[in-house]
Write a structure and sequence with these properties.
Layout: H1 2-29, E1 34-51, E2 57-72, E3 78-91, E4 96-110, E5 118-134, E6 137-155, E7 162-176, E8 182-198, E9 201-215, H2 218-221, E10 226-242, E11 246-259, E12 263-278, E13 281-290, H3 293-300, E14 318-330, E15 333-346, E16 349-366, E17 370-383, E18 386-402, E19 405-415, E20 427-440, E21 443-454, E22 465-475, E23 478-493, E24 499-501, E25 512-528, E26 532-547, E27 550-567, E28 570-583, E29 591-606
Antiparallel strand pairs: 1-2, 1-29, 2-3, 3-4, 4-5, 5-6, 6-7, 7-8, 8-9, 9-10, 10-11, 11-12, 12-13, 13-14, 14-15, 15-16, 16-17, 17-18, 18-19, 19-20, 20-21, 21-22, 22-23, 23-24, 23-25, 25-26, 26-27, 27-28, 28-29
Length: 607
């Protein structure tokens, strides 16, 4: 694996250098056809690592972080961009944060502005110290490799239905730091979209097919989970304008899915209408019938089908109706009322409930409060058994600047707002704020806090919580940052290896997990003599997850330091990372890995 990375870097760098030479010659021979621009950093890199679970390893090769871009004939006819890189920092908030990456990615656009526009993209990445996140919180470290390929094409003719098609393939492999434990995932997707206008109706058709495979990492699920599934979704939507600024919408869609444990199909029919009989008043209505509500709920948890839920093929049809009216009393003050009615059949039992309520919304800016917004409403739910508990929907936000201080804060609370399947969170809290202070012309301080948590839930013990705290102090060329984040609760394991937080828990699936993750970090940086940048960081993490009474526990500490020296077009970059990580699944105690790198490169620009 490590030898492959060194080889990949060398090959990528060599190809890039040859491309530079070839482009210069080509530009001389065919300047009226081919235009290219290349720039970046090219040099030599020395890297190594050592630890208590593996011997020392050292390597030397070419290092690059550049861009080759251009077009042939015209930018609309054919344009391209290629980006080889080595030791590039990259962040992905959904799943991983890559500390050091090596690879290449590129894209090409064809026939832009014509009747048949197309695009092609490809990427390949090898990353060291790849950081897996649980619900957004840093967790375990490892090495990973990813690749992706996609192609898209269209057929666009005026007066005829448009057609846009895309196909993509992706795969990833991750290895726990200091071990051979691997997690793998791959997916293939195909999508078709078409639009057409006829007789005043705008028609939109969609077709999508997905195949996914997952081998979950042990550190997340305590035991290996294999999942293979396919999903097909197609449907059509028709919209038409109505008098009085109105609109009408009709839709139908069908979803089918197959996996090792369950197959299901679901049809959905929708109708909506809205208009404004008066400038201050608007009315709207919505109707939906779903033949398999449980399957629809599963699809709503993510873009890709999640790991199989329990009894997805069971009869669980749902009819949902909504009517809403909004009246603007004066500038900044609005009153809204709504009525929801749901009829549900699940596993041979039926239920009905009606929810109605109203809200008052207000937004105002003045010298006393700065910018103030709030809304408050009352919700009542009635079922065939009688009147339900009265709920509350409210939110408050304020932004104010006074003197050298600047502050923002907001608070949101909602209860009894479920609309699809009534085993969902019945109330949620979301609040936070930010304070910024300019202590001195050269000194600034800021801090922010955010928390999201569930309140009342359908089943006791199915709460979810996520909060974060960050503070920063900057003084001239010095900067200090501290942060803390935490997430815990219930989640489903998705087919792409990610967790989707949900309050319904094991009511629906044995892929349900209980997770708890924490992270504490501190970072400092400074710039000396205008050419030298120094930075360092410390992170402490811990996480755990439980599935079917099997649990995993992980904790670790990370230290990193970086030096960057720039002298005209010459760059010297050096770094050191130290990671200590312990997992309950790995015998023999904590694993420790130290890695370092030094690169000497020069910035270049070739036209």
């Amino acid at each position: 694996m490590k030898a492959g990375r060194v080889l990949a870097v060398s090959v990528i760098s060599l190809v890039f250098v040859l491309a530079c030479v070839a482009s210069a010659n080509a530009q001389v021979e065919a300047t009226d056809r081919l235009k290219m621009l290349m720039n970046g950093n090219l040099g030599a890199v020395y890297a190594g690592n050592f630890g208590n679970a593996s011997g020392s390893n050292h390597s030397m090769g070419l290092g690059i972080n550049g861009t080759l871009e251009g077009y042939y004939f015209r930018p609309q006819f054919l344009s391209f961009q290629v980006r080889p890189y080595y030791d590039r920092a990259q962040f992905n908030a959904d799943s991983q944060s890559i500390n050091r990456g090596t690879g290449v990615d590129g894209s090409m656009s064809l026939f832009g502005g014509s009747h048949f526009p197309g695009s092609i993209s490809y990427g390949r990445n090898f990353s060291a110290n790849s950081e897996f996140r649980i619900a957004g919180v840093p967790s375990v470290l490892g090495d990973s490799s990813t690749s992706n390929f996609s192609v898209g094409w269209g057929a666009l003719f005026s007066g005829y239905p448009t057609l846009q098609a895309s196909y993509s393939i992706s795969d990833s492999t991750s290895t726990l730091l200091g071990t051979t434990n691997q997690g793998k995932s791959s997916s293939k997707s195909f999508n078709l979209n078409s639009n057409y206008s006829i007789g005043g109706f705008n028609l939109q058709g969609t077709l999508g097919h997905y195949n996914t495979d997952l081998v979950s990492p042990d550190f997340l699920t305590a035991e290996t989970v294999n999942s293979t599934s396919s999903n097909t979704h197609y449907g059509v939507i028709a919209t038409h304008r109505l008098p009085r600024s109105g609109n009408l919408g009709l839709g139908w869609s069908r979803t089918t899915s197959a996996s090792e444990t369950d197959d299901f199909a679901s049809n959905s029919y929708t109708a909506s209408a809205g208009f404004s009989p008066w400038q201050r008043l608007s009315l709207s209505g919505f109707w939906n019938y779903t033949t398999n509500a449980l399957a629809a709920f599963a699809q709503s948890l993510g873009e890709l089908p999640i790991a199989p839920l329990g009894s997805l093929g069971s009869n669980s049809n749902t009819t949902y109706m909504n009517a809403t009216g909004t009246f603007r009393i004066s500038h900044g003050l609005t009153v809204a009322g709504y009525l929801n009615h749901r009829i549900r059949h699940f596993q041979g039992e039926g239920s009905e409930n009606t929810q109605y309520g109203s809200t008052v919304n207000f937004q105002q800016a003045n010298n006393l409060f700065g910018f103030l917004r709030f809304s408050i409403g009352v919700v009542d739910t009635a079922t065939q058994e009688g009147n339900g508990v009265i709920g509350l929907v409210t939110n408050l936000g304020i932004m104010r600047k006074f003197g050298q201080w600047e502050a923002t804060a907001d608070f949101d609370y909602s209860q009894d707002t479920q609309t699809l399947f009534d085993v969902v969170t019945r109330s949620n809290y979301n609040y936070g704020g930010m304070i910024r202070r300019k202590i001195h012309p050269s000194i600034q301080w800021s801090t922010s806090l955010r928390e999201t948590r569930s309140g009342l839930t359908a089943q006791e013990g199915n709460e979810n919580l996520a909060d974060s705290f960050t503070t920063n102090l900057s003084w001239e060329k010095y900067s200090f940052t501290g942060s803390y984040s935490r997430a815990k609760g219930q989640a489903f394991l998705g087919v792409n290896g990610t967790l989707t937080a949900t309050p319904v828990g094991s009511i629906l699936s044995d892929y349900f997990l209980t997770f708890n993750a924490r992270s504490l970090s501190a970072t400092a940086s400074t710039q000396l003599f205008r050419v030298l940048t120094l930075s360092g960081s410390y992170t402490k993490v811990s996480s755990s997850s439980i599935r079917k009474a099997l649990g995993t526990f992980n904790n670790g500490e990370r230290y990193s330091a970086r030096l960057a020296l720039r002298m005209r077009r010459l760059y010297i970059i050096a770094g050191f990372d130290r990671a200590m990580q312990e997992s309950s699944l790995v015998p023999g105690g904590p694993r420790m890995v130290n890695s370092f790198y030094v690169s000497l490169s020069r910035w270049f620009n070739v036209f």
